[in-house]
């Protein structure tokens, strides 16, 4: 990755050729070995960090004129903090491969032209400001160490860099999802949207389970465009293909999950149950609960009232410590509802997407990505008045 970025970006190559200790973290350019003076005019070594925006898999550009600094406040030869650096104290979580770079502050020094021409122009400007006094006071101090720092973290599961995470400075939150192996059981309307949302997270694997084929009505209820060659193929294989150019780790399993499917859930750390048959749901619950796998079950009940559709969307969390209690509450139907309009394959993609959104938000709450106060066990959304009712778990009641 280091060589690919440097070979395709002349400004990065110029930084390397000039002698800077260039390295990369996901979404960031790092220059180590930056000498500077502390308050006592003693020599210290820091590092500069700049956000990267990926244009494509090989080409990057700068985000803005600001940088981050791993180090204390840099001082000039007069014993005062170097002027015109702006910014202030900040924390930034980098990857495990950059444990030596502890960001402590940001700097903002906009050039007279209003913008730096490229990353070389930007980084050399900051190096000159910060290291100039140290180089003058300590003759052998130099930021141009020609040190090779070529270890770059793997790109996780994505085929392209997730630059929005680095721009938002929430890499520490995103990494909370990285070790999960998630099963999506049922790839109908809601399950397909759950996949669409999860595919954009760094979860390690997403395992898909469904035995049905993809037909025209599915195209009206799932994200993405219709490729006529998909018609008649297993749903899970269609979904796997759709995301193969975006990320790794999505696997298709053309099979139903029931009480005898334990081996197919090996390694699964979380599951989404997105099936509309109550009896099948009951068998899936038995298996997941027996294996201690936390899961979220989604449901939807629709009917006509005064000529229009109305109904309820449901999101229920079954955690190992309270799954039996949640099941006994009777929130999830474990038998089939013969008069439910949902079962007629009506086109309600926006409701499928909303149900999936609520489920994925709850999953991300459980992983600490989002705040949950209190942590609800069951959430109902009423279509008619668009109100939600949350019911707490047994420990929050």
What are the key terms here?
single chain; 397 residues; alpha+beta; Rossmann fold; 11 helices; elongated
What's the quick description here?
This protein has 397 residues and is an alpha+beta fold. The chain contains 11 helices and 15 strands.
What does this structure look like?
27% of the residues lie in helices and 24% in strands. It is an alpha+beta fold. The protein folds into two domains: 2-158, no CATH class; 172-392, 3-Layer(aba) Sandwich (Rossmann fold), CATH 3.40.50.720. The strands form two sheets. The protein has an eight-stranded mixed β-sheet, with helices on both faces. Strands 1, 2, 3, 4, 5, 6 and 7 form a seven-stranded antiparallel β-sheet that branches. α1 (2-8) crosses α2 (10-18) and α2 runs parallel beside α3.
Topology:
Layout: H1 2-8, H2 10-18, E1 21-25, E2 28-37, E3 43-54, E4 60-62, E5 66-70, E6 88-89, E7 105-108, H3 119-137, H4 163-168, H5 171-174, E8 181-185, H6 189-198, E9 205-209, H7 216-219, H8 235-244, E10 250-253, E11 270-273, H9 278-291, E12 295-305, E13 308-318, H10 323-328, H11 349-366, E14 376-382, E15 387-392
Parallel strand pairs: 8-9, 8-11, 9-10, 11-12
Antiparallel strand pairs: 1-2, 2-3, 3-4, 3-5, 5-7, 6-7, 12-13, 13-14, 14-15
Helix pairs in contact: 1-2, 2-3, 6-11
